[in-house]
Amino acid sequence: MTANKNMKYSVLGLILMCISPLLHAEDGHSLWLRNKGKGSVNVVCSKNSPTLALAKQELREGWSGNAGATVNLILKTDKALKADGFKLKENQIQANTESGILYGVYELLRRQQTGEVIKEETINPSYERRILNHWDNPNGTIERGYAGRSIFWRPSKDSLGVTEKDKTLWTEYARANASVGINGAVLDNVNADQKMLTAPYLERVKGIADILRPYGVKTYLSVKFSSPSMIGGLKTSDPLNPEVIKWWKDKVKEIYKIIPDFGGFLVKANSEGQPGPQDYKRTHADGANMMADALKPYGGIVMWRAFVYSTSDEDRAKQAYGEFMPLDGQFRDNVIIQVKNGPVDFQPREPFSPLFGAMKKTSVMPEVQITQEYLGHSTHLVYLAPMWEEFLKSDTYQAGVGSTVARCTDGSVYSQKHTAIAGVSNIGLDTNWCGHDFAQSNWYAFGRLAWDNKLTSEQIADEWIKLTFRNEGAESADWNNNFLKPVKEMMLLSREAAVNYMMPLGLHHIMSANEHYGPGPWWAPARTRKDWTPPYFHKADLTGVGFDRSKTGSNAVSQYHEPLASQLNDINTCPAELLLWFHHTPWNFKLKTGRTLWDEMCYKYDTGVKQVRQFQKTWDKIEPYVDADRFTRIQNKLRAQSQNAQVWKDACLLYFQQFSKMPIPYDIERPVNNLDDLIKNDMKRR
Ligand code: BDP
C-alpha cells in the first residue's frame, strides 16, 4: 500500500469515527416506526371513534407532506372496496370501515417517508385475515421463540392482572401490526394448554383484546381439542357427543360475552401427540365442524391445521395430502384449513405443499414461519421475503397455468367465504422485539405480503431499510448508493445464502436434534421416531443422496398437478434446487452446470460461507451510516453467522464425503473442523 493510500484510509477512518457517534443510539424498539413527522396537517373527519382518533393522531404526528395541508378522512360505502380497503389520494382517504381509514393513513405516511408516489389508487388487501400465530405458552416461554419471553403471558398464575406496562407494550405491538396491515393475533401456542380456556386466562385475553381492538387487530386462541374432558369435567371430548357439543357452545358464548369481536380458534389436532377427533374415530371434518358450528352465530372462524403425520411408513411429506384430500368439500364455510408452505416443516427450501390449489371445495390458508426455527434462530441474518415470494408465486397448475399459490388462496381462483394467511411470530420481550435487528424485516415483510401478495421482496426490503435506517438529513444519492443498495443486496441474497450453507440442492431436515440450529446429518438415536431424524430425509449411501419421491419411489410427485408432476418426476427436468427433495441422485450425476452432484454440493456449501463473509464486509463498510449500537449488535451477529456457516459446510461435506468418497474440489477452501469433533460437540450439548 502506498503512503498516499494510507493517508486516504486514515482520513476516512477519522471521518468514520467522527460521524458514527453523532447518530444517536437506537435500541430497535421503535421498529420501522421511528420517524417523526415534519410538518403540520389539518385533519377533517366528521366522525369519531377510538380507531378514527388513532388515525387522526398518526396523521398529525407522522405527517411529512406539504406543511399546513388538509386531509379528509371519509367513511362511505363503496362496492369497489373490501372491508379493510381504501381509496387513496394525496389529501384524502376514503374507506368503508374505520380500520380501512387507519390502513389508508399508514399507507400515506409510509409513502411520504419512503418517497413513493402518492396518486389516486384503490387499494384492497389480498387476504381478509392476516394473522400472527404466537407460539406462546401460558408460563411465558415461547416454543421456537428466540427473542425473549412472551409479551402476553408470565410465569406465575397470580400475575394474570393487566398492568400499565402490559398495556403500553401491547399498544406498541398493535400499532406495529396495524401499520403493516396485520389484523389478527393468535395469543397462544398451537400445542395448546387447556388452561387457556379457563376464566382467569380468558379475562387476560379480554384485557389484551381491549388494547388491540382500536388498531383493528382481533384476538384468536389456539385450543386443546380435549378441553371438554380436561377442564369441563366430561368423560369424553368426542365431537359428536351432545354434551361435548354443548360444552363448546357454552364456552364460545362465555368468550363472546367478554370479547364480542373474538376471531375464533386455531386447532392442532392429531398431530405430534396432540389430541383430536381421530381419538374418537371421528374425522378432522367432524372435529372442525363441531367447533365451527359453535362459533358461527358470532362470526368466528376455525383455522384447522393440516400439519399432520403419523408413525406409518408412508413418506412424511405425503401424509397431510393423504389425510385431507378425501375430506375436501366436507368442511363448514367458516373453517379454513391452515397449511404450512411446504409439505414437511418450514425448511430453508421446500416445494409448496401439494394441498394448495388441490382442495377446491374448501377454504385453505397458508402458514409461514417468521420465527427462524430452521434458519439460524435470532443469530443469522436471513430475510425471508424471497422465500415467501417464491412460495406464493409457485404455480400449482390446479386450475390452469397461473394458478399460483397466492391466487389459489386469496379468492382469485376459488370462491372462498373467508381468506386468510398466518405467520408464526418471532416476537418476544427483547427490547428490539425480534432478537436480531434484521429479523424485524421478517415481521414487516409478513404483514406487507399478507396485505398484498403480489409485492416483491425487493420493494419490501427497500421500504423497510428506508424506514428502519434512514436518518433525517441523509443526503439521498450518497445514502442510496452506500447504504440502501448494499444492504438491500445483502438482504435479498441472505435466504439463498442460508440455503447454500445449510441445505442446498433440495436437502432438508438435516439439522441437529431438537433445537434445530446447527448441522446434524448424522443424528439418529435408536429411540427417536425415524421421520424426525436426518438420515430418514437425506438417505445418503454409497450410490447417492436424496429422497426418492419419484414414481418409482414414494411417488409424492403424483400429488402435484401436471405438467409439474412430470417435471418433478424426471431427474433431468427437476429443478436443481429441489433435486434431492425428489430424487436419490448418484454422486456423479451431471448437473446443468456441468458439475457432478458431489462437486456442485461442495460449491454450494462453499458459496454459502463466502456469501456470509461478504455480508460482514458489506456491513463493516456501512458503519458511518448507522448508530454505533445497532452497528455493533449486527456486526457481532454476522460474526457468529459466519462461524456457524463454516460449521455447517464442514459438517455436511465431511459427513457426506464418507459416502461419496470423492475429493472436495481443490479450488475450494478446505474444512477447518474435524467431523469427529463436530459430532462430539453436538452430542455434548445434549
Ligand atoms: C415444528 C416445531 C414444533 C411445532 C410444530 C407445529 O418444531 O415446535 O409445534 O412444528 O407447527 O416446526 O405444530
Brief write-up:
Helix content is 39%, strand content 10%. It contains 20 helices and 15 strands.
Could you walk me through the main structural features you see in this protein, from its secondary elements to its overall organization?
The chain is 39% helix and 10% strand. The chain folds into three domains: 83 residues, Chitobiase, domain 2 (2-Layer Sandwich); 327 residues, Glycosidases (TIM Barrel, Alpha-Beta Barrel), CATH 3.20.20.80; 149 residues, Alpha-d-glucuronidase, C-terminal Domain (Alpha-Beta Complex). Strand 1, helix 2 and strand 2 form a beta-alpha-beta unit. The radius of gyration is 26 Å and the shape is globular. Helix 10 runs antiparallel to helix 13, helix 13 crosses helix 14 and helix 18 runs antiparallel to helix 19. The longest helix has 33 residues. The protein is built from 20 helices and 15 strands. With 686 residues, it is of the alpha/beta class. The strands form three sheets. It has an eight-stranded parallel β-barrel with strand order 6-7-8-9-10-11-12-13. Strands 1-2-4-3-5 form a five-stranded mixed sheet, covered by helices on one side. Strands 14-15 form a two-stranded antiparallel ribbon. The N terminus is likely disordered. Bound molecules: beta-D-glucopyranuronic acid. The site of beta-D-glucopyranuronic acid has 10 residues, from loops. Beta-D-glucopyranuronic acid (BDP) binds next to loops.
